[in-house]
Amino acid sequence: MASQIGNLISPRLLRALLPPLSLAALLVTIFWLQPRTQSYFGLNLLLNLAIPIALATIAQMFILCVNELDLSIGAFVSLCACITATWLNDTPLLGVLALAGLVGVYALLGALIHLRNLPSIVVTLGMSFVWLGLAVLVLPTPGGAAPGWIRSLMTLKPPLVPFPIIAAVAIAGVVHVGLMRSAFGTVLRGAGGNPASLARAGWSILRIKMTMFALAGFFGALSGMALVGLTTSADANIALRYTLLSIAGVILGGGEFVGGRVSPIGAVIGAVTLALAGSFLSFLRLNPDWQIGAQGAILILVLALRVLISRGEARR
Amino acid sequence: MSGRLRQPWLWAWVGAAAVWLATAAFTGGTGSAQVLSAALTFGAFYVIVALGQMFVITLGPGNVDLSIPACMTLAGTVSMKVMGGAAAMLPVGLVLALLIGLGVGTVNFALIRLLRIPPIIATLSSSFIFQSAAIWYNRGLRVKPPEPLADFTTARIAGVPVIALAVAALAVAMHLLLTRTLYGRAVLAIGQNQRAAHLAGIRVERTRALTYLMCATLAGLCGFLLAGFSGGAALNMGEEYLLSSIAVVVIGGTSVAGGYSNVPGLWGAALFLFLLVTMLNTFGAGAGVRLVLTGLIIIGVIVAASGGRRRI
């Protein structure tokens, strides 16, 4: 039976289908457990917190694509959220400048890591202290307010399709076209696959790394803004768990740690899957203590399935 | 002399001494001995987990154990609750904490080996489960540790914390394990070139398994001792050890790319990290400034250390 299916669908296709299928399985189970989530309102509630996670996951994906790892993205998103809830709300110009400056710092980090050949894990680990410290300085106590336009964007109620679904598709689509379909995107990914040959071909690896880090910073900032739009206020620790969620999301979506093998669509799907994993258990009426554990278990389950498929691939 | 200057662990010790002297200069020398004593105690906890993390990181790129905090929390909460503050149960609690560490290490390596999950993701996802288990088991209770355990973790001989002496002895043993035994040489060889190590007849997977088991067991031990020191286990007790275990290893002069590591640097880096925070506190820096400066100084040390260490 299994081999018959294997003959019909190639393992490669099966592997590509794994992230959407896991998401679909999770969604169907949730619908079955709690039919009310099928409504427009239910879906909105179920999925809206997945948007900032998806943006942070895309940010992490850019870093992983050039064979680095960002352990500071959670603290960075927290900082951006704090700036959004304070400066961007009170003095928009200052807020925009601050966020743009942070994206610039990310580009410089990429340059530093590349030029001095530093381990990105350690540099970003150090930066996580810096971002958190700055967040505490900007917003010492939880509070602030979401700028009206972000708030109204995040609570948009378009007809028929809930906003989080439109946003997720838009994010995945834009990044997919930019990174996977464009000529420049191919060069960017090449820096993860074979930097030496890319350098021989006359491309500057330094500039590529800076671009990728800047893109990560940009999407990190968007994540912080989206988060504040949903929660209406911020605090310095608001998104610390995004660091681990974003790495897990990229891998869940079919990305690899090395070789520039990433998938923006997969990353968004992975992020949504992880966000839903929490809700899943609460609908099961299981102990809330096991919420985080469920995310770990789902991650392991999907990765185990991927190994099974790869083994099938190796046998042929 | 120039050879001595190039020792990778030197910078961590220089940094620790500089930071301590700066603190002493600021306060005019008052309380410097107490600061040092506190640094030795807290440094000892850093060193216990960093020893395990160092062996794991030495295995080569991609090898890192992110489940240390969850393992510490689980071992701490379960052992404290089982002992229930009774001194007679102390050996049971210790063995239990070590067994939990062993169990965590086994799960981690099973995920890495059988499911071929990258270690970062494997230890990360397993840590979610262990953290949940700790939350579920603990139920917010804070059970006091048995008297002798609390005494042991806070005792001093001639002003020197006993736990620091014990961990120093542990560090010496681990140094010998790394440099003088087949196992230690195998870990270094795998980190330098896994394929060459395999062809040279080293049993790569067995060595990796032992390393992950040891790392988790040390985390379990640290959780047990830390719970004893801080008057009971807390659910967030491991939190800061995720970053600091890696930071201590790297600042201590161990190569993140694997294959080169050293134990003396761990103590230097652990003292440096603690004294750095103390110094910023003494200077009256607020929480925000303190965090920013800690981060910048860590990065500064790494940039400086990597510049002096490039020798390929």
Give me a quick take on this structure:
Chain B: InterPro entries: ABC_transp_permease (IPR001851). Chain B: The chain crosses the membrane at residues 35-59, 90-112, 119-137, 157-178, 209-229, 241-259, 266-285, 291-308. Chain A has 316 residues and is mainly alpha-helical.
What secondary-structure arrangement, pairings included, does this model have?
The complex is a heterodimer of chains A (316) and B (312).
Chain A: H1 2-8, H2 11-33, H3 40-47, H4 50-65, H5 73-85, H6 87-90, H7 92-115, H8 120-138, H9 148-154, H10 163-181, H11 183-193, H12 195-200, H13 205-231, H14 242-252, H15 264-283, H16 291-315
Chain B: H1 2-5, H2 10-27, H3 32-58, H4 68-83, H5 90-114, H6 119-138, H7 147-154, E1 156-157, E2 160-161, H8 162-180, H9 182-192, H10 194-199, H11 204-229, H12 239-251, H13 264-282, H14 287-309
Antiparallel strand pairs in B: 1-2
Characterization of this structure:
The complex is a heterodimer of chains A (316) and B (312). Chain A has 316 residues and is mainly alpha-helical. Chain A has one domain (18-309). Helices cover 76% and strands 0% of the residues of chain A. Chain A contains 16 helices and no strands. In chain A, helix 5 crosses helix 14, helix 7 runs antiparallel to helix 13 (205-231) and helix 9 (148-154) packs across helix 13. The mean pLDDT of chain A is 89. Chain B is mainly alpha-helical. In chain B, helix 4 (68-83) packs across helix 11 (204-229). At the A-B interface, helix 8, helix 14 and helix 16 of A face helix 6, helix 12 and helix 14 of B.
Task: Tag the structure with descriptive keywords.
heterodimer; A: 316 residues; mainly alpha; 16 helices; B: 312 residues; ABC transporter involved in vitamin B12 uptake, BtuC; two-stranded antiparallel ribbon; globular; transmembrane (chain A); transport (chain A); membrane (chain A)
**Order of helices and strands of chain B, N to C?**
HHHHHHHEEHHHHHHH
Number of helices of chain A: 16
Q: Which sheet architecture does the biggest sheet of chain B show?
A: 2 strands, antiparallel
Could you tell me the strand content of chain A as a percent range?
A: under 5%
- What separation lies between the terminal Cα atoms of chain B? 20 Å
Poorly predicted ranges of chain B: 308-312
- Which sheet architecture does the biggest sheet of chain A show? none
Largest sheet of chain B, order of strands side by side?
A: 1-2
Helix content of chain A: over 70%
